[in-house]
Inverse folding.
C-alpha cells in the first residue's frame, strides 16, 4: 500500500500535466483560495438561501394598530386599510427580520439573498455574452485577417468608444418607450451590457491569435494540412482559454459593480426585484445613511466581498496559468 | 427621498409663473418698517447662504425652465402683481383693474395696469409703461421659445403680431407713461395669472430687439437685472452671488449679500448643520424633523402647493366598474404615512388643499376594500377562470406608470405594491413601469398607460378646466362628460370666487364619481434655518405656499 | 511613425462618425425629448406652442435630416447650442472640462505614487503576507461602487469629523479671491479626488505587479542575480526600469481620459464638470450637448489609445509602428 502511494508520487513528479501545474500554483495562492470560498459561500447564500426564507422577495409588511405584524402574503385576518395600520418599514433587526426591513417595508435579509441571485446571474450571463461575442468576432478577425479583420476591428473601435453610461441611460428610456415589462427589463439590461462589453475581449482574442499564428506549432498544423476549423478549435482556442478564463472571472466582478452604478442612476434592476445594486443605493439618502445602517451596509458588504472574491480568484488564476500574462 | 423632492420640484419647473410658489418678493400688508429702520443706521450687512439643488444658469423670467433658476431671478426681478398668502392677487409694482366690456356684441375683458410712481430698476432708470409692453412683446414674439404661455391668451391682436405683419399688439395699449391696458376676448379668470409678468428693463434686455430676433434678450440670460431687492453679481463655481439693491421700492434689504449654493438635496440638512449654508429645504419626514430638532435648528413646515394623485385613462379603461374596482384597491393612508410620516395627509378631492376652492367638507369616496373591488370587477363582467380574472377570453391587465426614477422612490410606491399583490391574487396582471419624469409625461400624453401616478403643482389659480374638460389642454384622463363640461364652462364665465367655489365643488364630486382620478396626498415642505446665522424672527409670519420668505427677502436679517 | 499617426487619426474620424450616428439615432428614437420635458407639466401649453417649439429646436426634422444638419455644423466647428444652458456646446465643454480635469489629475498623480510602488513591492514578495495584504487593500478599492465609497467618505470626513466640506466647489459665504480661492477650492476637491484615487489604485497596482513579475522571470534578471548583484540592485536597477516601459505607455494613454469627467462622483460632490453636465443633458433631452459630450469622450478614448500606442514605440525601440 505504502509502496503504491510512493510509486504514484514518483509518477506524479515525473509527468506533471500543465493542468496539474496550474492547480498547484493556484493552490499556493492563499488569496485565491479565500476567493474560491467567498464565491462558493455567496452562491450558496443567494441560490439556496431563498428556499429557507419564510418571506418572498417583495412581501410587504404591515403593523396593525395593536402592534401585530402581518404581511401582504399573510394578512392574519387583518385589514391593511384598517384604522391605525402602518407599513412596517425601517424596522430594526429582530428575530423575525434578521436585518430589519427596508424603507418600503420588505425584509432586508430575504431581499439580500434574492438580490445576490440576480446580481450573480447578471454577472455570469453578461460575461458569457461578452466572451461568446468577443471570441467569435475577435477569432474571425484574427484568423482571417485582411478586409474582414479591418471591418470587425473598426466595429470594435466604435463599440469601444461608445460611452457606456449615456448609452445605457438612453436605452433604458427606449425600453420604457417600447413598453418592455419590468420583469423582462433585466434580460435587456444583460443583453445591452453584453453588447457593450465584448470589444475588449475581441481585441484580446485577436491579438492573441495573431501572435499564436506565427508560432511554430501553428505553422506545423498548417503544414500537416489540418482542417482550419480543427486548427481553430483544437489548437488556437485552448491557447487563448487561460486568458479568457481570467478575463471572465474578473469581468463578473465588474459587471456587479456596473449594475450597482446603473441602479444608482435608476436604470438598473427594476422594481420590485432586488439586486445588491439597487439595495445599496439607499446609501445616498442621508437619513438612511445615518440611522439605518442595516439597510445599506449588508448589501454593500456583499458587493465588496463578492467582487473581491472574483478578483482574488481571477488574479490567482492568472498567476497560475502563466505568470508572463499581462493584465 | 431626495430624488422625490427633486422630481416633485421638477413637476413645477416648467410651469408658468403662476404654477410656482416661489414667486418674487411681494409687497405684504404686514408692516416691515421696524426692521428696516433698525438696520438703516448701520446699513445692510452680512452674507447668508441658501442651498439650492439645481441651477441651469438661465436667470431670465423669459427663458428660465426650472423653479430653481426662478428663485434666483425672482430675487432680482419684480412682478406687476403679486399673490398674497391665500393665493389672491394684490398690487405690487402696479395695481390692476379689470372691466368687462362689450364690443360689437362680443364680451371682452380689459385689464388696466397702473404702475406706482417713482419706481426704478436697480440701475436707477425708471420703470415705465414701455417696459411692460416690451415684456409682452417678447412673450408674443414668433421666435419665443421659453416656457411661459402669455401668447396662448386670447389677447386682442396677438395672433396678428405673432403670425402676421403687425408690429404692435393692438390689444396692448400704452395709456400714459405709467399705464398699460390689455384687452382679451371673453372672460377668463385664469388670464391674470399669466398677465402679471415680471417687469424687465427694456433698456437692458431690449438692446437690438426687433420682432423675430430674441438673440439680444437671450444674451442677458446669465446676467439678470431688474427691480427686485437684490442685484445679480455673478454665477461661478456653482455659487450665485447677489448684492442688495439700495433703491428697492419696498425698502433697502437688511442683508448685504445673498449667495445661493448648489447642493444636492440629499445633503441639504447636513449642509445647514455643518454651517455651510444657512437655509435649505430637505424633504420632510419624521426622521428628518428629529435630526433637525436634535441639531438645534429652526424649521418651518409649510403646505406644499401641490397634490399627488393616481390617474386613470378613461379611454384605455372605458368600463367605469373596472375603474371603480381599481379605486377600491388603493390603500392610501399607510402608503403616504410610510413615506412622509405625519408631514403629508390624504386628500379626498383632486385639488390642492391649499387653494381657497378646495371643499373642506369632502369625504372619502373609495375606501380600500378588496371585496368591493371584486364585486365591481364582476359587475364589469370579469370572472375567475382557472385563477385568471377573465372577460371575453381576455385577462384583466393594467399598466401603470410611475416616475420613481427607476428605484420606485415615490410615496405612492407601497400603494402600487399592495395593488400588485391584490390584483395578482385576483388573477389579473398589474404591470408597474418606473421611469424618469420626461419620459413619464410623454407616455401619459401618448395615452400609453392605463393608470399613472403623478402630482399637480397647483398655481394660485384653482382652474379645473384644463384637467377635466373634454377640450382641456392637459386632460390626460381622456375623459369626456357633458355635465362636467357644462359646469367647467360656467366656471370660466365668472370672476366671482364664491360662485366659483360652488361650481368647483360640484365638478369635483362628479369627477370622483366617474373614477378617473384618485387624489392621494398633500405634503408639506420643510425649510430649515440655522438660528445662529439667521434671525428667525425676521422670517415672515404665517408663511403659506404662496408667500414664503423668498417673497420678503428684503426683511430677512442675520443674527 | 508620422504616417502611422496620420493613418490612425484618419481611422479615428470614421470611428467618431460611427459613434455619433449610433448616439444620434438612439437619442432621437428615445421618447421624452427636450420640448416635452419643457412643456409636459405646464397645463397651459397648447399643441400649437409645442409644434412651434419642436420646430425651433429642430425636433421636427427626420433622423437623417437632423443628423446631417448636425454633422455639417460639426465640420464647420459648430457643435450647436445646448438646450439646457442656452450656450454654445463648445463653450460649455471647454469650461467644464477643466473642473473634471482638476478632479481627475490629482487622483492620477496619487494613483501613480501609491499603486506603482505597491505593485512592485507585492511582486517582489509574491505569495507573502505583504503581497496578500497589499493586493487585498488595492483590490478593495476597486470592489466598491463609487457612490457607496463616496457616501462613506462624506459621512466620515464631512459629517462626523467635519474636516472637509460635504460637497460643492467653494465656500459660498466667503468672497475668496486669487490664491485663497484656489486653496478653498482645493479643500472641496479632496474628497472626490480620494474617491477617484482609491477606485483607480487597484487596476494600476495589479498592472505593475504583473509586469514586474514578468520581468523578474526574465533571463537577464537571473543573470544579474548570478553575477552576485544585491537583490535591491537587481530589483531597482534592472527589473524596475524594464517594468517602466509598459507602465509609462498605459499612464500616457490615461491622460486624455482625465478630461472626460465622471458622472456619479461629480454628481455626489456637486462638481460642475463634464460628467454632471452630461447626466443633466441626458435626463433633459439636450441633444446638442449629449452629442457634443459623447463625441468629446469618444475622441478622448481614441486619443488615449493612440498616445499609448505611440508611447510604446517611443519607449521601446524594438516595437515598430506601421
Amino acid at each position: 500500500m505504502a509502496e503504491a502511494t510512493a510509486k504514484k508520487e514518483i509518477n506524479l513528479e515525473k509527468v506533471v500535466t500543465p493542468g496539474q501545474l496550474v492547480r498547484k500554483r493556484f493552490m499556493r495562492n492563499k488569496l485565491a483560495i479565500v476567493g474560491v470560498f467567498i464565491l462558493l459561500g455567496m452562491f450558496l447564500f443567494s441560490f439556496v438561501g431563498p428556499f429557507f426564507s419564510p418571506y418572498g422577495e417583495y412581501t410587504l409588511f404591515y403593523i396593525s394598530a395593536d402592534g401585530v405584524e402581518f404581511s401582504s402574503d399573510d394578512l392574519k385576518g387583518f385589514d391593511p386599510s384598517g384604522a391605525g395600520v402602518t407599513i412596517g418599514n425601517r424596522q430594526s433587526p429582530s428575530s423575525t427580520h434578521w436585518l430589519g426591513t427596508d424603507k418600503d417595508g420588505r425584509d432586508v435579509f430575504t431581499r439580500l439573498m434574492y438580490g445576490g441571485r440576480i446580481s450573480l446571474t447578471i454577472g455570469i450571463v453578461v460575461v458569457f455574452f461578452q466572451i461568446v461575442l468577443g471570441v467569435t468576432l475577435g477569432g474571425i478577425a484574427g484568423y482571417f485577417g485582411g478586409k474582414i479583420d479591418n471591418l470587425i476591428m473598426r466595429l470594435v473601435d466604435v463599440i469601444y468608444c461608445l460611452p457606456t453610461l449615456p448609452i445605457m441611460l438612453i436605452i433604458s428610456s427606449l425600453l420604457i418607450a417600447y413598453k418592455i415589462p419590468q420583469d423582462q427589463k433585466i434580460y435587456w439590461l444583460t443583453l445591452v451590457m453584453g453588447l457593450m462589453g465584448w470589444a475588449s475581449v475581441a481585441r484580446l482574442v485577436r491579438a492573441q491569435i495573431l501572435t499564436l499564428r506565427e508560432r511554430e506549432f501553428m505553422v506545423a498544423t498548417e503544414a500537416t494540412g489540418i482542417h482550419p476549423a480543427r486548427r481553430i478549435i483544437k489548437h488556437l482556442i485552448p491557447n487563448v482559454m487561460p486568458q479568457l478564463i481570467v478575463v471572465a472571472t474578473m469581468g463578473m466582478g465588474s459587471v456587479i459593480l456596473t449594475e450597482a452604478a446603473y441602479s444608482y442612476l435608476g436604470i438598473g434592476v427594476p422594481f420590485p426585484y432586488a439586486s445588491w445594486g439597487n439595495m445599496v443605493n439607499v446609501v445616498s439618502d442621508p437619513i438612511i445613511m445615518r440611522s439605518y445602517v442595516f439597510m445599506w451596509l449588508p448589501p454593500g458588504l456583499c458587493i465588496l466581498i463578492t467582487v473581491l472574491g472574483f478578483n482574488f480568484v481571477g488574479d490567482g488564476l492568472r498567476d497560475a496559468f502563466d505568470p508572463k500574462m499581462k493584465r | 427621498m431626495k430624488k422625490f423632492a427633486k422630481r416633485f420640484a421638477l413637476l413645477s419647473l416648467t410651469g408658468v409663473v403662476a404654477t410656482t410658489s416661489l414667486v418674487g418678493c411681494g409687497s405684504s400688508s404686514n408692516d416691515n418698517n421696524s426692521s428696516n429702520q433698525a438696520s438703516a443706521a448701520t446699513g445692510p450687512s452680512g452674507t447668508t447662504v441658501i442651498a439650492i439643488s439645481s441651477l441651469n444658469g438661465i436667470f431670465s423670467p423669459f427663458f428660465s425652465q426650472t423653479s430653481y433658476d426662478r428663485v434666483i431671478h425672482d430675487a432680482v426681478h419684480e412682478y406687476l402683481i403679486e399673490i398674497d398668502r391665500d393665493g389672491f392677487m394684490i398690487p405690487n409694482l402696479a395695481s390692476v383693474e379689470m372691466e368687462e366690456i362689450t364690443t360689437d356684441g362680443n364680451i371682452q375683458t380689459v385689464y388696466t395696469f397702473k404702475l406706482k410712481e417713482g419706481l426704478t430698476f436697480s440701475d436707477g432708470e425708471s420703470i415705465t409703461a414701455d417696459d411692460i409692453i416690451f415684456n409682452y412683446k417678447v412673450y408674443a414674439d414668433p421666435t419665443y421659445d421659453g416656457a411661459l404661455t402669455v401668447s396662448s391668451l386670447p389677447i386682442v391682436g396677438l395672433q396678428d403680431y405673432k403670425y402676421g405683419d403687425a408690429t404692435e399688439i393692438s390689444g396692448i395699449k400704452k395709456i400714459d407713461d405709467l399705464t398699460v391696458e390689455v384687452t382679451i376676448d371673453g372672460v377668463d379668470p385664469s388670464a391674470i395669472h399669466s398677465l402679471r409678468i415680471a417687469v424687465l428693463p427694456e433698456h437692458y434686455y431690449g438692446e437690438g430687439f426687433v420682432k423675430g430676433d430674441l438673440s439680444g434678450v437671450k444674451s442677458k440670460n446669465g446676467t439678470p437685472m431688474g427691480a427686485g431687492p437684490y442685484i445679480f453679481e455673478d454665477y461661478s463655481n456653482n455659487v450665485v452671488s447677489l448684492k442688495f439693491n439700495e433703491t428697492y421700492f419696498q425698502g433697502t434689504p437688511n442683508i448685504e449679500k445673498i449667495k445661493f449654493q448648489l447642493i444636492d438635496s440629499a445633503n441639504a440638512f447636513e449642509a445647514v448643520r455643518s454651517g455651510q449654508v444657512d437655509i435649505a429645504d430637505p424633504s420632510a419626514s419624521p426622521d428628518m424633523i428629529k435630526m433637525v430638532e436634535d441639531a438645534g435648528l429652526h424649521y418651518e413646515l409649510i403646505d406644499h402647493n401641490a397634490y399627488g394623485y393616481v390617474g386613470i385613462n378613461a379611454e384605455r379603461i372605458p368600463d367605469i366598474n373596472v375603474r371603480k374596482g381599481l379605486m377600491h384597491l388603493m390603500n392610501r393612508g399607510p402608503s403616504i404615512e410610510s413615506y412622509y410620516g405625519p408631514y403629508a395627509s390624504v386628500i379626498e378631492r383632486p385639488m390642492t388643499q391649499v387653494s381657497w376652492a378646495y371643499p373642506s367638507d369632502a369625504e372619502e369616496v373609495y375606501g380600500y376594500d378588496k371585496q368591493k373591488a371584486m364585486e365591481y370587477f364582476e359587475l364589469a363582467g370579469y370572472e375567475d377562470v382557472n385563477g385568471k380574472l377573465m372577460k371575453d377570453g381576455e385577462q384583466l391587465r393594467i399598466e401603470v406608470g410611475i416616475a420613481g426614477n427607476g428605484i420606485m422612490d415615490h410615496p405612492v410606491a407601497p400603494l402600487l405594491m399592495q395593488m400588485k399583490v391584490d390584483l395578482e391574487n385576483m388573477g389579473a396582471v398589474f404591470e408597474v413601469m418606473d421611469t424618469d419624469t420626461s419620459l413619464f409625461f410623454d407616455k401619459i400624453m401618448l395615452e400609453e398607460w392605463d393608470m399613472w401616478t403623478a402630482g399637480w403643482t397647483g398655481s394660485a389659480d384653482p382652474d379645473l378646466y384644463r384637467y377635466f374638460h373634454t377640450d382641456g389642454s392637459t386632460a390626460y384622463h381622456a375623459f369626456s362628460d357633458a355635465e362636467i363640461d357644462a359646469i367647467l364652462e360656467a366656471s370660466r364665465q365668472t370672476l366671482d370666487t364664491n360662485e366659483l367655489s360652488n361650481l368647483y365643488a360640484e365638478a369635483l364630486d362628479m369627477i370622483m364619481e366617474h373614477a378617473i382620478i384618485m387624489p392621494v396626498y398633500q405634503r408639506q415642505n420643510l425649510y430649515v434655518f440655522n438660528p445662529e446665522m439667521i434671525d428667525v424672527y425676521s422670517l415672515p409670519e404665517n408663511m403659506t405656499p404662496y408667500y414664503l420668505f423668498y417673497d420678503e427677502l428684503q426683511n430677512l436679517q442675520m443674527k | 511613425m508620422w504616417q502611422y499617426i496620420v493613418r490612425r487619426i484618419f481611422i479615428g474620424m470614421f470611428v467618431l462618425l460611427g459613434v455619433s450616428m449610433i448616439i444620434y439615432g438612439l437619442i432621437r428614437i428615445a421618447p421624452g425629448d427636450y420640448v416635452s420635458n419643457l412643456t409636459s407639466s405646464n397645463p397651459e401649453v397648447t399643441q400649437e406652442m409645442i409644434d412651434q417649439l419642436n420646430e425651433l429646436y429642430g425636433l421636427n426634422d427626420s433622423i437623417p435630416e437632423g443628423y446631417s444638419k448636425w454633422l455639417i455644423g460639426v465640420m464647420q466647428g459648430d457643435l450647436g447650442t445646448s438646450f439646457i444652458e442656452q450656450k454654445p456646446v463648445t463653450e460649455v465643454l471647454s469650461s467644464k472640462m477643466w473642473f473634471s480635469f482638476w478632479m481627475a489629475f490629482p487622483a492620477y498623480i496619487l494613483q501613480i505614487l501609491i499603486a506603482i510602488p505597491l505593485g512592485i513591492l507585492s511582486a517582489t514578495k509574491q505569495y507573502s503576507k505583504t503581497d496578500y495584504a497589499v493586493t487585498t487593500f488595492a483590490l478593495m478599492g476597486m470592489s466598491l461602487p463609487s457612490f457607496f465609497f463616496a457616501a462613506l467618505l462624506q459621512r466620515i470626513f464631512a459629517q462626523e469629523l467635519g474636516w472637509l466640506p460635504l460637497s460643492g466647489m467653494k465656500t459660498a459665504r466667503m468672497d475668496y479671491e486669487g490664491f485663497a480661492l484656489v486653496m478653498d477650492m482645493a479643500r472641496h476637491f479632496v474628497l472626490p479626488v480620494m474617491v477617484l484615487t482609491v477606485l483607480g489604485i487597484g487596476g494600476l497596482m495589479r498592472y505593475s505587479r504583473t509586469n514586474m513579475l514578468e520581468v523578474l522571470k526574465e533571463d537577464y534578471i537571473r543573470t544579474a542575480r548570478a553575477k552576485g548583484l544585491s537583490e535591491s540592485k537587481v530589483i531597482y536597477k534592472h527589473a524596475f526600469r524594464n517594468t517602466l516601459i509598459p507602465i509609462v505607455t498605459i499612464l500616457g494613454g490615461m491622460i486624455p481620459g482625465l478630461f472626460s469627467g465622471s458622472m456619479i462622483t461629480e454628481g455626489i460632490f456637486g462638481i460642475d464638470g463634464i460628467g454632471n453636465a452630461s447626466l443633466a443633458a441626458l435626463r433633459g433631452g439636450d441633444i446638442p450637448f449629449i452629442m457634443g459630450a459623447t463625441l468629446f469622450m469618444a475622441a478622448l478614448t481614441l486619443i488615449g489609445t493612440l498616445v499609448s500606442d505611440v508611447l510604446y514605440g517611443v519607449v521601446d525601440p524594438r516595437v515598430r509602428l506601421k
About this structure: The two ends of chain A are 46 Å apart (CA to CA). Chain A touches chain C through 51 residues (CB under 8 Å). Residues 1-8 of chain A have pLDDT under 50 and may be disordered. The CA atoms of residues 255 and 318 of chain A lie 19 Å apart.
